[in-house]
Amino acid sequence: MFEAGALFGFTGTTMASLMFFWSMYRQFVPYQLRDYLEKCFYKMFGLVSTSVHIKFTEYTEDKGLKKSQAYDLIRNYLSSKSTARAQRLKANESKNSKSLVLSLDDHEAVEDVFQGVKVVWSLSVWKSDNQADSSEKRYLTLSFHNRYREMITTTYLDHVLREGKEIGLKNRERKLYTNNSSQDYSAWREGRWSNVPFDHPATFETLAMDLEKKEGIKKDLIKFTKGKDYYRKVGKPWKRGYLLFGPPGTGKSTMISAMANFLEYDVYDLELTTVKDNSELKKLMLDTKGKSIVVIEDIDCSLDLTGQRKKKKEEDEDEEDEEKKAEKLLKRERSERESKVTLSGLLNAIDGLWSACSGEKIIVFTTNYLDKLDPALIRRGRMDNHIEMSYCRFEAFKVLAKNYLEIESHDLYGEIERLVEETDMSPADVAENLMPKSDEDDADICLRRLVMSLEEEKEKARKLAEEEKKKKEERDARRKKKKAEEEHKKKKETEENGDVFRDNGNLI
Ligand SMILES: Nc1ncnc2c1ncn2[C@@H]1O[C@H](COP(=O)(O)OP(=O)(O)OP(=O)(O)O)[C@@H](O)[C@H]1O
Ligand SMILES: [Mg+2]
């Protein structure tokens, strides 16, 4: 009734009166009689009507409990159309409570035009007369002229569902997921991942790094998001791996947040040490959605993935002090006890057959020590893009100064440029120096503090280099001495063996 009215262009007043009679009719006419009258009406109307109606219910018809996905997608699609054209709207808070979301009100209709064809969507509510069941059931009805049946039921509906999906993804509240430990039974029963709203403020604008490199990464990400057809054409799953490496405090984690904000993706922070074994890792990965970044931070500490390097490490072990050795052993033992995820399990998780289950996924590893990782883990194709996050140089400093002090130049810039190029200070430390600590701290005070810190750091680095040099010389001397002793011992042994042989010879 409403859809037909809207389709034939009734005015708002006419619609309001019709709706008044409609609600009176629903209230006072008994259900059985209404059912009979409606059947007759639709039969008569169908004989003369040229319009077609398609009904989309809020809940699926089978058991009536599961929400219909198509209904939600259509509501998404209609939200902008309704805001622009409908007379009565319903206002709801968005999921993150930051804004209001307007949608079509109950018993309201809105027009849409597609390829020059007019269609009408209307939202109806059906309320059960059964006293025990007070639930309301909503459904959307699409009405259009019979002449366009073919086009509307195929092209138009595809268009609505596709657009609705995109709008839904854009409006959704982004999430930061962490994996639940399977040892924690109650958490694991709730789901493999727990989530909180993702609200990190980092962006590429606030990220301090070489500008050219930054632009390159942004372009790479954009190309990836638009690459659905390309990836299909070349026969690759639609995913991309990034390896971020560099010293602590150079912005690896910040970069991940900036990437997620730039692409509007969710983040899955995968803590490998709590994953029991390869099969659990597989399940966790299968449980991640598309349009997301899966992150494994500090991959070198998460697991002992460097089996084949153990030998080399053990060779060097005599050069390390006892304390470090004990610490390493403890770490290795702990990770072996806690997790049985193996290198091949992880490789499978990244690009095994089933990893292609949901597309548009970015996988990021971070590490402080690139050379500790197994080459198989970081080869191109698995980790496609290797990004070095380096100590703060002048370009990065300028970004930080702009962020923290809102300045683009200063008399001290020349001195700072020289110092940052000569000194290895992380952006995290530079940022800490630049941050005003009280209301009296202006740009001048903060920059002077930075200069002092840089000079101290430079001096510390000089002393450290000297100490290192001394230690190396001592180590070399020790090694030389050890070698000489061994050679001497060998020589002595050979001589003694010779003597024995001679003695034995004499005996014979
Ligand atoms: N490149 C950068 N640009 C802007 N801010 C940065 C940058 N690097 C570090 N910071 C600041 O320093 C803090 C620490 O940085 P972040 O956690 O990203 O370092 P990280 O490289 O992940 O360190 P770690 O190796 O210890 O995990 C951040 O919260 C941020 O404020
Ligand atoms: Mg980090």
Describe this structure in words.
Helix content is 52%, strand content 16%. By secondary structure, it is of the alpha/beta class. Strand 10 (266-269), helix 10 and strand 11 form a beta-alpha-beta unit. Residues 307-319 have low confidence and may be disordered. Magnesium ion binds next to helix 9. The site of magnesium ion has 4 residues, from helix 9. The chain crosses the membrane at residues 6-25.
Give the CA-based shape.
Answer: elongated
Secondary-structure content class = alpha/beta
**Overall mean pLDDT:** 83
CATH homology superfamily of the largest domain:
P-loop containing nucleotide triphosphate hydrolases
GO molecular function, one term: ATP hydrolysis activity
Family: Belongs to the AAA ATPase family. BCS1 subfamily.
Transmembrane segments: 6-25
Keywords: ATP-binding, Hydrolase, Magnesium, Membrane, Nucleotide-binding, Transmembrane, Transmembrane helix
SSE layout:
Blueprint lengths: L1 H6 L4 H17 L2 H18 L2 E7 L11 H17 L3 E5 L6 E5 L3 E7 L2 E11 L8 E10 L3 H23 L3 E5 L5 H6 L2 E5 L13 H15 L2 H7 L4 E7 L6 H12 L2 E4 L8 H9 L5 E5 L2 H4 L7 H7 L5 H17 L4 H9 L9 E7 L7 H4 L6 E4 L5 H12 L7 H10 L4 H8 L8 H65 L1
Parallel strand pairs: 7-10, 9-12, 9-13, 10-11, 11-12
Antiparallel strand pairs: 1-6, 2-3, 4-5, 5-6, 7-8
This protein binds adenosine-5'-triphosphate (ATP) and magnesium ion.
The site of adenosine-5'-triphosphate has 16 residues, from helix 9 and helix 18.
